[in-house]
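Structure first, sequence second, as always.
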């Protein structure tokens, strides 16, 4: 290829791409290195994330009020067969009618119409318990992990290597493994059912992990005494805490779309995702309270 036929970077796009890559990589590290206090810098990052989540929630709640959204939501909920029938009639030069009359009987009157419910109706009539459950699950989970659990200290390390790896293994690795096991179990075993009262009862029972973890060997502490000092207690509580989180949260997210009509399953899934995010936001807020009462 000659020099005249080589592609020319007319708009300096290559330079701009590498500039943005370098800026995006080095700028966050520069913030950490130049921050007066690491805790203040970290607080700023996390509070920004919480603000974005709150703004997203507000926008999501205001979305159904827009005429543009309501129009396309209604258009999506209409059955594809109904739209194809209208298009066929229009192409033939006929006016789309509500139904045909055969033998003096109106077909449109003899068949039930495909009713669609609003977001509030779906939430109130079908998935309110499941939405509350998934919100409560993640409120408890994020309220305790990792803000409180990372402050637990080993009582048997005694300056050994285990003291260095205690939190990475006992807290983060244990949580992720057992959370994954709980989520994976729902692929082969789903108990209790979507209409069972045991499901919200088990979700509320997870509240017991708050005092159990707060009474572990958390340091520094000012108010509560240590009851479960040995490392084995903390590892056991973390395993049960993570497993119940993964299993119950997956059950709620799976059952939500199954309790409504197929045409409304996507809306139900979006509602469940919203309450999941709400639980994450509430958990981040409650984490300050849980840490303060230790």
């Amino acid at each position: 290829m000659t020099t005249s036929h080589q592609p020319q970077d007319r708009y300096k796009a290559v330079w701009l791409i590498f500039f943005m890559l370098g800026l995006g990589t080095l700028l966050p590290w520069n913030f950490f290195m130049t921050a007066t206090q690491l805790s203040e810098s970290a607080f700023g990052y996390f509070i920004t994330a919480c603000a974005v989540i709150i703004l997203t929630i507000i926008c999501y709640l205001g979305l159904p009020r827009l005429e543009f959204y309501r129009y396309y939501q209604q258009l999506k909920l209409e059955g594809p067969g109904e739209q194809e029938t209208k298009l066929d009639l229009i192409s033939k030069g006929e006016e789309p009618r509500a139904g045909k009359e055969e033998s003096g009987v109106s077909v449109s009157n003899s068949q039930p119409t495909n009713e669609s419910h609003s977001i509030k109706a779906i939430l109130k009539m079908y998935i309110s318990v499941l939405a509350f459950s998934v919100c409560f699950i993640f409120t408890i989970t994020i309220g305790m992990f990792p803000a409180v659990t990372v402050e637990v200290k080993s009582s048997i390390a005694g300056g050994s290597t285990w003291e260095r790896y205690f939190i990475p293994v006992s807290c983060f690795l244990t949580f992720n493994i057992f959370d994954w096991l709980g989520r994976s179990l729902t692929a082969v075993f789903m108990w209790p059912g979507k209409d069972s009262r045991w499901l919200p009862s088990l979700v509320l029972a997870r509240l017991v992990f708050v005092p159990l973890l707060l009474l572990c060997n958390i340091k520094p502490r000012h108010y509560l005494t240590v009851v479960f000092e040995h490392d084995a207690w903390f590892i056991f509580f973390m395993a049960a805490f993570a497993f119940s989180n993964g299993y119950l949260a997956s059950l709620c997210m799976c059952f939500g779309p199954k309790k409504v009509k197929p045409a409304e399953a996507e809306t139900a899934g979006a509602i469940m995702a919203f309450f999941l995010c709400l639980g994450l936001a509430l958990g981040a807020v409650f984490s300050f309270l849980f840490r303060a009462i230790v």
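Margin note: The first strand starts at residue 101 and ends at 102.
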